[in-house]
Amino acid sequence: MSNLYQVFRDRFDLSHPLLIDAEGETIATYRDLEQRSAQFAMALTQLGLKPGDRVAVQTEKSIAALYLYCGCLRAGLIYLPLNTAYGAHELNHFLQDATPSLLMVDPARADDHAARSILTLTMDRLGEGSLTKLAEECPTSHSIEPRAPDDIAVIVYTSGTTGLPKGAMISHDNLISNAQTLTSAWDWTQTDVMLHTLPIFHVHGLFVGLHLPLLSGCAIIFQPSFDAAAVRTALAHATVFMGVPTYYTRLLSQGIHQKDCEGMRLFISGSAPLLAQTFQEWEDATGTVILERYGMSETGMNTANPLDGARKPGTVGPPLPGVECLVVNDASEALPAGETGNLWVRGPNVFQGYWQNVEKTAESFTSDGYFKTGDLAVVDDDGYISIVGRSKDLIITGGLNVYPKEIELVLDAIDGVMESAVIGLPHPDFGESVCAVIVSLPEVDLTAELIYDQIKPLLANFKTPKKIFFIQNLPRNTMGKVQKNQLREQFSDAAHNP
Ligand code: AMP
């Protein structure tokens, strides 16, 4: 029997600081976590919720939201985090699909949901609201509901490869095994201090960003969102920072330097590709080397560059202990090092399937238990994996495969190019044509001609973009992922106009 909260509880020391502020002062201890999460577990139980019921949570990041998460775990409820950016209408799909017994929203949004037949309670950005009030009246001790290893702890909605978002069912054991693997791979101890600025509606901030500190019983500096200036101040009291690549580029543009990072032992990046250029600029500016890792909602973390040993830019490192990664061609045959193909993953971290979607679940797994990630990858001779992109972003032009990343690397190396995204747009002859969207550095007057002069000698004709578009910023979601579907929509009409 394994409840994730029980595993934390067995390890943490009640008197140790759980949350500290940017000056290092204690805001809450692990005793507060133990007592406040018990109160939330009790309040939820008194409302009639039973183990296995879903609790949909769309609240701002707050300390109370962390206690609520742990309260759900200990009551055996299934936690369903929702992006705070979704409007009431966008929530329809999740609520109809997951049929939660309780919806948690910001008080300002409660009226938007008044017509729903689902119990709706509130919590605001300060952690106050109707559920918090109920919890405050409850006793500060509560049992921890025993859970079978594959009982579901969290459902995370993800678009995966195609279609409407699907609910990835993540079990207590999936979360326990991944947290234990990473704690040991990254040498977490109680003396660490995690600087947490990620949102907690996504696996990066919720699982990696919280489970590792909770499992090692260390302190967390819990900032409501990423703010480069606030991060630079707080680094003085932190030892580990996790971020999406955009956080690192923003810190660099704010002039971060070695002195800011003196007490830091580890900077971790993930959720989107970290450019080799950012990796290098970060090392030059701070004297520290970012550790890039790769994971996804359905699997947690799969691979990571090593703590000791070479961290190779542009790679996500070898598979983590206990995780198997396989690169295969479209005929499901394993490919040798150096060849790009579909990435499959197997291990105790891999989820239990999609909520009430037997068909999609069956399609996503091989008969021997590998999950088809939908990512394209290549392994080098040392076993380090590089993610080449999502398979849905692969461009097939005149029957030939073009991997956007290869072209993006060539474009990014051009003087004056800040970043680029290569997409396939419909083409009457070729099916798709390769097109590039470029963000140039401020005050640089780049033209398509200047770019063509430099790339033509480097790229075969079929890989050379047929059109080059310039744009101010690439559209990104909150996790820093470039939204190529938006670019495809934006430029599809322009693609073949002269
Ligand atoms: P999500 O389920 O939102 O966490 O998104 C998972 C996807 O993000 C993966 O399937 C990858 O396409 C991408 N991803 C995560 N980490 C990395 C990384 N370090 N480099 C490149 N892509 C990444």
Describe the protein in words.
The protein is an alpha/beta fold. The protein folds into 2 domains: 4-286, Rossmann fold; 395-491, GMP Synthetase, Chain A, domain 3 (2-Layer Sandwich), CATH 3.30.300. Helix content is 29%, strand content 24%. It is built from 14 helices and 23 strands. An 8-stranded mixed β-sheet has the order 2-1-10-9-11-12-13-14. A hairpin with a 7-residue loop joins strand 7 (152-158) and strand 8. Helix 2 crosses helix 5 and helix 9 (245-253) crosses helix 10. The model has no long low-confidence stretch (mean pLDDT 94). It binds adenosine monophosphate (AMP). Adenosine monophosphate binds at residues 158, 203, 270-273, 292, 294-297, 316, 373, 375, 387, 390, 479.
Going by CATH, the architecture of the largest domain would be 3-Layer(aba) Sandwich
**From the alpha-carbon coordinates, what is the Rg to the nearest angstrom?**
23 Å
Spans where pLDDT lies below 50 across 5 or more residues: none
Roughly what is the average pLDDT, rounded to an integer?
94
Overall form: globular
Q: Total strand count, please?
A: 23
* Helical percentage: 25-40%
What oligomeric state best describes the polypeptide chains here?
Answer: single chain
Sheet/helix structural class: alpha/beta
Name the ligand types.
adenosine monophosphate
* Number of spatially distinct domains: 2
Which percent range describes the beta-strand content?
A: 15-25%
What's the CATH topology name of the largest domain?
Answer: Rossmann fold
Supply the number of helical segments.
Answer: 14
Main sheet: which strands, in order across?
Answer: 2-1-10-9-11-12-13-14
